[in-house]
Amino acid sequence: MNYITINNQHSVQVNTIPEMEYDMFYNINISLLEDHPERHCVLYFGYRETKMIRLICCIADDIQHNIMVSSSIVRSEAVLNSFSAKNLSFERFERELHENFGIDYSDHPWLKPVRYSEYRIDKSKTIKNYPFFSIESEELHEVGVGPVHAGIIEPGHFRFICNGEQILHLEIQLGYQHRGIEQLFLDKTKLIQRTTLAEAIAGDSVVGHTTAFAYLMETLSGTLPGNDVLYSRTLAQELERIAVHTGDLSGICTDVAYQLGSSVFGRLRTPVINFFQEWCGNRLAKGLIRVGYNPFILNNVLAERLNSILDAFEPDFIEMNGELSKLPSSLSRFERTGTLKYDQLLSIGTVGMSARMNALNRDIRMSHPYGSYPELNHEPVMKHHGDVYSKVQIRKQEVLQSISYIRQWLSQIPQPQPHPQPQPQSVTLRPDSFAISLTEGWRGEICHAAVTNKNGELVVYKIKDPSFHNWLALALSVRNNEISDFPVINKSFDLSYCGHDL
Amino acid sequence: MLSIILILFTSIFFTGIILRTKSITSGRKGPGLMQPIKDVIRLFKKGAIYSETTSIIFRIAPAIYFSTVFMACLVIPFGSYKGIVSFDGDFIFFAYILALGKFFSIISAMDTGSSFEGMGASREALYSMFAEPAFFILIGSFALFTGNTSFHNIFSSLHLGSSITYTLGGLAAFVLIMIAMIENSRMPVDDPKTHLELTMIHEVMILDNSGFDLGLILSTGYLKFAMYGAIIADFFIGGLSFFWAIPLFLIIQIMFAVLVGIIESFMSRFRMNHNPQFILTLSSVSFLIFLGVLLVLDKFV
User: Fold this and answer.
1) Do the Cβ atoms of B198 and A484 come within 8 Å?
2) Which residue from A73, A190, B79, B81 has the fewest beta carbons nearer than 10 Å?
3) Are the beta carbons of A482 and B271 separated by less than 8 Å?
4) At A440, which helix (H) or strand (E)?
5) Crossing angle of the two packed helices A300-326 and A259-280, in degrees rounded to 10
């Protein structure tokens, strides 16, 4: 075997991962993905091992429910054949490798920087001297937006090349939010520091990222979380999905200037996130998820409260969606706007909701279930048009689906187990191990992976937010659309800047 | 004299009513009716900041913009009472003095050299160009109908006719409301509330204006609304006495403002490339009025 097959949230010894020459590594991974739409690369990264760089490639198989891991060791000054030439979903991973280790590729389409991090190998390159893609033309014009966002959300630079009102090309340059989170995971050794870091990866996916982190730490340390821990995490995950999807629907309505939808969805979101406040003291669910134990038990009083919140939420939500899908002026903005084809989505490795908008089935809850999902037999919501309206409908149906899941769970609250100690101050990680943890945040697949050394210390902590792949989907989807439709297309993806920039 | 006083008076609370309507329909209390005027007063107290790339055009444009709209208000009569200025063909003066103001606001936006403002300017120019035939066919039909070419004479002779004038008045009110929405860059053509430069039309043209200049531009917008409201009211008040005419004028203005608020609350903005179609539709409604006038006057051979 040229790769080792592991399951989601399992760890293996690093030396059991087959190590091979780069050419073989290249052929195996490319052939694994070729003509297998059910497989996609969840993580491809490298780290320094003495003077060399070890590359690890993880390919998930949605039908076999497992992950195929292989590795190779290369020199940093090596010039390699690029995976991206065969499979575009590696494009950003290889840019990252080029940026951090100086590995060069002979046939990579465009080795543009991912971020302007202080860990990059060539420090002479900065955003100030970055050569943006441009076209010599009298007829076309360039529009640069950002990095300061008009709605003061997060910084990112968007450069459009337009023919009048029509967008021909969009270049998205990110990296302004880079905080060096992956390095901080290694520097901060206390468990609570690392947990807090995981909560800060992306403020809108606190549950998603912290859950991924917690499972990763648990599998690396051999802790087995109790049933009630899994239960609260899964419930919190679905609750986060409801809250953010509803907030996004409000944002989409704002961007097409539909005031009624904007204010009603905005109002509906509030009680849901306020429930997190009641549950754990933070509206974004910070503090709710801890490694190995459950600090905030969902008791019957809270369960009843949540039930009544959902009872009030659901009819209004359904009514407002009915209004929205009956309104011709909204439909004319949503339909056939920002369309992506199945083949495009597949080739660039789109994940999550953005993939499901055009029949590409990517849902970790179904393909690599974790927590309480294995008992659920989750059916992902799929649409087949790939436009803004598909994403609106996915949001609506996923919210209703999550409500029904939560209702089902609330009728069977597990008995809280008396946890052995209040909260573990630290966990002992297995030495020389590799582990990977996938969760399905509201945006899509969140991937965390870690490698430990012989003393059980972290040598690399790798995070992949769903936005990592999906930003390219946004850039492609706006082509040939009107520039004035960009805001609504952007909002329908609602990608994370800080999740990408780390 | 009376008309300009009433226009100035209604312009004070017109935008306040729109905002209040929108707040109430979205379940909020909303700001007071005077808030827009308070904002303008606040801005008038401030100095302006000018970008180094701009020229004298950028500095004089807000004042020209304001004064053109103010001059346009002067020709508007109040029922059977003349406006301050009234002469044959004054509706042409009205249309082109407004166009002059618009021209200056467009070149001042281009003057900043910003790609956003250039985009906004091109959109604004395009939509005004499409709206122009609608206005001229409309007023031209009434000129033909009444045999007069000044606002005052058109409106004062309009109401001596039969109930057909009220039908035409209703259609004319629709066209004028829509022209007012386009000229003021409101929904469904433009969204005044958005923060997204890429979708803006008017708002993006004034991104670089600040302080006193911005105050002038905002107050011009308020004045423009009240001005179009006054023309609409003129179709209905005709020869009524003060006692009835003034309340009717105010009621029509308030209804107009509430209508704008309701349109903005319960619909989405048009897709940008649907706007020209929509605006051209107005010309065809104007043309309908023109055919109606021809029918009434037995001009068909």
Assistant:
1) yes
2) A190
3) yes
4) strand A433-440
5) 170
Kindly list the residues from chain B whose CB atom is less than 8 angstroms away from the CB atom of residue A329. 188, 267-270
CA gap B202, B123 in Å, rounded: 9
Range of the domain at B158: 2-296
Give the tens place of pLDDT for each residue, A419-442: 555 666 777 888 889 999 999 999
Rounded CA-CA distance A456/A450 in Å is: 11
* B301 inside domain: no
Measured distance CA(B25)–CA(B272) in Å, rounded? 25
By residue count, chain A amounts to: 502
Would you say the C-alpha torsion B65, B71, B73, B75 has a positive or negative sign?
negative
Residue A293 DSSP one-character state: B
- All residues at 6 or more sequence positions from A209 whose CB lies less than 8 Å from its CB, including other chains: A198, A199, A201, A202, A441, A446, A448, A463, A465, A499
Report d(CA A477, CA A345) in Å as an integer. Answer: 10
ipTM of this complex prediction, to 2 decimal places: 0.89
What is the H or E stretch that residue A74 is in?
strand A66-75
B154/B278 Cα distance (integer angstroms): 28
The strand pair at A157-163 and A166-173 is best described as antiparallel
What the block records as the tokens of A21 is 């020459």
| Strands A458-464, A39-49: pairing kind | unpaired
* CB-CB under 8 Å, B198 with A487: yes
Q: Contact A267/B27, CB-based, under 8 Å?
A: yes
pLDDT at A150: 64
Complete DSSP assignment for A309-378: HHHHHHHHHHHHHHHHHH-HHHHHHHTTSS---HHHHHHTT--THHHHTBT----HHHHS--TTGGGT--
Domain count for chain B: 1
- Residue A368 Rama label (left phi>0; alpha psi -120 to 50; beta): beta
CA B291 to CA B301: how far, in whole Å? 13
Reduced to 3 states (helix: H, G, I; strand: E, B; else coil), residue A92 is helix
d(CA A467, CA A472): 9
Tens digits of per-residue pLDDT, B234-288?
888 877 778 888 999 999 999 999 999 999 888 888 888 888 888 888 899 999 8
Place of tokens 């054949």: A81
Residues A4-114, CATH architecture? 2-Layer Sandwich (3.30)
Would an 8 Å CB–CB cutoff place B29 in contact with chain A?
A: no
Q: Would an 8 Å CB–CB cutoff place B194 in contact with chain A?
A: yes
Question: Checking DSSP bridges between strand A79-80 and strand A104-105, what pairing results, if any?
Answer: parallel
B266 close contact with A: CB closer than 8 A:
yes
Q: Residue with structure tokens 């022209």?
A: B179
CA atoms in the 13 A half-sphere facing the CB of A323: 18
pLDDT tens digit sequence for A302-334 = 889 999 999 999 999 999 999 999 999 899 999
DSSP letter for each residue of B44-110: HTS-----TT--HHHHHHHHHHHHHHHHHHHT--BTTB--SS--TTHHHHHHHHHHHHHHHHHHHHH
| B158, B97 contact by CB (below 8 A) | no
* Helix, strand, coil abundance in chain A, percent, nearest 5: 45, 20, 40
Parts of chain A belonging to CATH 3.30.460.80: 4-114
The SS3 call for residue B206 is coil
User: What is the torsional sign of CA A411, A417, A418, A420?
Assistant: negative
User: What is d(CA A301, CA A295) in angstroms, rounded to the nearest whole number?
Assistant: 16
